[in-house]
Amino acid sequence: MAQAQAVSAEHAVTVAKSESSAAAAAQKMSERGFRAEDITAARADLERADGELKQAEARYLEREVRSPANAVVEVLDLRPGDLIPANSPVAKLLEADQLYVIVYVPQDQIGKVRIGGSADVKVDAFPKESFRGVVEQIRQQAEFLPRNVQTKEEREHQVVGVKLRVENPDNKLRAGINADVRFHEVN
User: Fold this and answer.
1) What angle do CA 144, 149, 152 make, to 5 degrees?
2) Among 32, 66, 75, 139, which one is least packed by beta carbons within 10 Å?
3) Dihedral sign of CA atoms 45, 50, 51, 55 in order
4) pTM to 2 decimal places
5) How many CA atoms lie less than 13 Å away from 35 in the CB half-sphere?
């Protein structure tokens, strides 16, 4: 029993010495501060954790397909579970503010049309409404006739393509529909 008490006392002394040295180390650390290596290692751990967070956020954002513009999906040929390669097109979009109409103006009338000029655009779907169009482009070459026109009568059948950007504020118009255009007089 005395031997057990002696062993127990020795163990208590060892534990006390260990606690004393730990307390001394803690006191030394609080007096002198952390070692430069410990600070550098902690900063490296912080940067690594920050990088992992950013990578996880980027992966989370990749689950969503985003359009580069305000648009309506025209064609979406995907099924649930399809794998999509990075940076590949997944949908055909129709931008409501990017609708245009191309009309062909007889060559003897093309002098009345100017870039930036306005026009009224009417479509069959909305016969009582007209949409505003702005001339965006006038082609430089006449079309639809044989290349070697020889008489004045043949020249009268030549036309010039004109592209108008059409305002579609209520998203009523659709791509591919027919339209009638009336140009406003140029002063």
Assistant:
1) 105
2) 66
3) positive
4) 0.52
5) 6
Long-range residue pairs from 112-119, CB within 8 A, at least 24 positions apart, any chain: 112/183, 112/185, 112/186, 113/138, 113/162, 113/183, 113/186, 114/186, 117/183, 117/184, 117/186, 118/183, 118/184, 119/164, 119/181, 119/182, 119/183, 119/184
Render pLDDT for 120-164 as a digit per residue (tens, 0 to 9).
999 888 989 999 999 999 988 877 654 555 556 666 677 888 899
pLDDT in tens, 29-71: 777 777 788 888 889 999 999 999 999 998 888 777 777 777 7
Strands in 100-106's sheet, in edge-to-edge order, are: 100-106, 159-166, 126-143, 118-123, 179-183
